Here is the input.
Amino acid sequence: MKSFALISCLCLAMLSAAQPPSRVVTHDIDNFWTAYDSITTTQDTTRQLHFIRTLYIDKGSEGLKAFMDARDYTAELWVDLISRYPKFWSSIRPNTLSVKTKAPEIEQSIVRLRELYPDLKEARIYFTVGGLRSGGTTMNDMVLVGTEIATGGPGTDVSEFEDNWLAGVFQNQDADNIVALNIHEYIHTQQNGEPQDLLGLAISEGACDFITELVMGRKMQNNYIQYGRAHEKELKEAFKRDMFTSDYMQWMYNGSQAETVADLGYFMGYAICTAYYQQAENKPQAVKDIIELDYLDTLAVEHFLEKSGYYEPGTVNKAALQKDYAAKRPYVLRLEPFPNGSLEADTAVKEMRIVFSRPMNTHAYSISYGERGKESFPITGLGGYSEDGTVLTLKIALQPDHEYEFLITDRSFRSTEGYPLKPLEVKFKTR
Here is the structure.
C-alpha cells in the first residue's frame, strides 16, 4: 500500500513537472480589487495609501513592478483615480475579473503564433490594473497589460472623464480584444532595436497588428484600422510627408490630442506590412522578415518599405521630402517688445508677444521651464493668439536685475498646415 502511494505521488510529481509554467499571470487583478474595496471604506488618505501599498503593490508580480516603472504608476496616482472615477471603476470591474477565463484562448493564440513563426521566443503575460495610461506595453520578455483599459467596451461608463480618449478606445472593443492585444504585445517582445524615425515606429506597431490578424484569422476592427481603410489615400500622402522625421505627435500615442482618430501611424505600418506580405511569394519568410526587421538599421527599414511596393516606385525621395519638411516648419521670427537675449528688459512690461513665421494652430501651445526651473520662469498666463494666428501674447511678471528663461517647444506648437515649430530657447535679463 505504501509502495502504491509512493508511486502515485511520484507519477503526480512527474506529471506536474511536465506541465509548462503558465505564460499568463492574473493574480494582480484580484489583489487590486481587494485593495480597492478597502480604500472605498474610508476617506482617510493615509489609510487609503496604506491599503494600495500593502494589498496591491507589495503583493505585486514582477510584471506589476515593471509596469509601474514603465508608466510612472504610484500609490498616490491609484488612490486619486479611485476617488475621482467611481462610476468607471464599478463598470470595468466585471470585465477585468473575466480575464482569467481568457487565459486558455491566449495560450492557444501563442501556439498558433509559434506555428506561423517557429523561432518564437518565450515571454510571460502579466495582467495588472494600471493607472489609465496604457492598455499594454512590453519590457524585455514581459508583456504588461493594463486591464482597466484593455477590457473596456462600449458599455463601460466613461462619463466622468474630461476628454473622449477612452470613449474612442472602447468604441470598437469587445471581449476578444484582450486576446488580440496580447498577441500584439507578445510580438513586440520578438522585435529588434528601437525605431529611429516615424517610419520605423509605425512599421514596428503595424507589424504587430498585421501578425495578430494572421493569428486571429480575421480582419482587425479597431478604430484606427477602420478609419485608415476609409481614408487611406489621404493618409498615405500625409504620412509620406512625415515618415522620415521624428514628428510622431499626429500619428502615434496621441490619445485625446488627435484631430480625428488616435494612433493612425499604427494603420500606416499595418498597411505597409500587409503590402509586404501580399507581394511575397514565400509567406513564411515574409512573416519572419516582418517580425525580425532591425529598427536600428534605417536603411533596412527603408528597403522594407521599398520592397513592400506600398508607394509607387520613384514617388519616395527621402532627401527631397526631408528638405521640403524642414522648409515648411514654422519658426519664431522675433519676440516683442524686447528681443531674445536682451540684457535691458524693462520690468514695467506686462506682456510679451511671440511672432511666428507662419499662421499657427490657435488651439495649442507648448512652453516649458528652462534649466533654471520655475524661479526663472516669467510667464503668468496667456493673452491668446492674434486673429491671423501669427502672434501669441504671453502674460509676464518681471523683477529687477533677474535672469529669465523658458523653452518654446515643438510638442504642441504647429502651423495651420500641421508642421511642428522649430524650438527656441528664450533668455533675457532685466535692468
Remarks:
- Residues 1-19 have pLDDT under 50 and may be disordered.
- The longest strand covers residues 379-385.
- Residues 198-216 form the longest helix (19 residues).
